[in-house]
Amino acid sequence: MSFWMSLAAPFFLDKSDTASWKALNGLSLKVKEATAAAGLSTRLVELLNVRISQINGCSFCLDMHGRMALEAGETTQRLAVLSTWRETSLFDDLESAALSVAEAATELPDSETRIAELAASRLVLDDAQFSAVQWAAIAMNAFNRVSILSQHPVRPSKK
After folding, report:
1. Which pTM was predicted?
2. Phi and psi at residue 123, in whole multiples of 5°?
3. Neighbouring residues of 64: CB distance < 8 A, sequence distance ≥ 6
4. Interior CA angle at 137 toward 150 and 40, to 5°?
């Protein structure tokens, strides 16, 4: 833990403004409905949540969504190589397109790169899937920020 983190007691945003926290959870429920309606599996959505949390460096969300991904049927091998997914053949076209959209929504690269990434993904994802993946990324990015700013702790696993 850094010197500055040891000086600052965590300030849990989710506890300090429960109305905003409930609203964010409400968005999450709507996103879950949208991803299901678009035919996107829980396994894929959890894979996206893990990748977004890797990019943002959110240890709390990585811990939680890593476990949820495994529970949804994801493999440890795919989770282990997720940060280098483009260099493997372990992810199908739908997963690759969704990961590309999630990364673009999280990293917000320059407009030319972002437009190219999203356009390539549109060749694979239908309108409902494209929309649902973007909303899933927006929601996960918001949860990452709440957890990072709140310094939510990762508790040791009981297993």
Report:
1. 0.92
2. -70, -20
3. none
4. 130
